[in-house]
Known about the structure:
Blueprint (H helix, E strand, L loop, with lengths): L3 E5 L4 H12 L9 E6 L2 H8 L4 E4 L5 H10 L4 E4 L6 H18 L4 E7 L14 E2 L4 H8 L4 H16 L2 E7 L1 E3 L12 H12 L3 E2 L7 E4 H16 L11 E3 L3 E2 L2 H14 L9 E2 L3 H8 L3 H9 L4 E2 L2 H4 L8 H6 L1 H11 L8 H4 L9
Parallel strand pairs: 1-2, 1-4, 2-3, 4-5, 5-7, 6-14, 7-11, 8-10, 9-13
Antiparallel strand pairs: 10-12
GO molecular function: aldehyde dehydrogenase (NAD+) activity
Protein name: NAD-dependent epimerase/dehydratase domain-containing protein
Pfam families: Epimerase
Amino acid sequence: MSQNILVTGGAGYIGGSVVAELLSRTSSSIKGATVFATVRSEEQVQRLSKHGIGAIQLDLHNETAAMEAVIRNEIDIIIHTASSAVPSHVSNLVKALGRRRQVGGKETYFIHSSILTMFGEDGGWPSGEVRDTDPLFEKEKQLGTDHPGRATDIAVVEQAKAEGVVTFLVMVPTVYGKGSGQGRRLSVNIPAYVRTSIKLGIVYKFDKDGNPPATHISDLTALYALLVEKILQKEPIPSGEKGYYFAMAHRISWWAIMPRLAEGLHMRGLVTEPRAQTWPSYDMASEYLRWPPQFVRAMGTSSGQQIPINAYQIGWQPKWDEQRFLEGMDDEIKAALESDTVPATLFDKLLSPSKGSTGA
């Protein structure tokens, strides 16, 4: 039976790349599915529609509009990439899937994109190793909802349980590489470092190295597609309270990255020194990188001891590792210089009290 899939944030870096990945799967069970994508503006609707994508202009804050879009388009699966830390968005979407389940008489599924760095000390998680097979939902409940990402995770699981919707939580790490969507094609971190370094004439690193989990965008979208395939094939895989998936292919060292950025930018005459200097303060880093003060330390120095199990057990096979990433650093620089015409950071909306979405 054919399925209709809705990807939120269809003009964003991850969402647009997920849409492209699903449309490319012409030899899998996804082939018969119809893919829709939500966007924020009419201009984005026109842009995606030119490429044969069923684009829907939708305000995710509007519960009635979300319900109408899901029911009218008979959506069975939602891949939510537009906002990792807005509980009302997931509540509206899951309620809509619950209603769709009642009307259509078949299972509905919600794949949520969350934040992997929450599962480290800088994210308020207890020290020590943490696996995605651990009782993470129970621990998130114990820690409370002071972190917006954690509050959203809890909302996903609890709302879905009430509505009878099957859920999967993909914990997204630092993502790199050029995206394949029809909108934003660059990630947050490295383009921000490139842009800021050129502005200041110096490449800065933090006073403490970070060794965060990371994944190339193509490997990340392959995981989303794999989850969809498992759903369509009705294979029993971890879901709900047990359905956490650490989308981690490897780790990266910022102190290994920054010298390469300095060398690459200096070679192009864009910075004055071929070596990275240390940020004078976290406040300065926050100001120039356009990262919220409450997140700048975690984004620049976090490490953690996250261990992915679930994704690999269902057959995920990432193609990128740290060595390949570092060897391709010049490509990251070139992509940032050629294509980085979008706002400074996805976190701009967190800097504005009237906005909360983190994608699209």
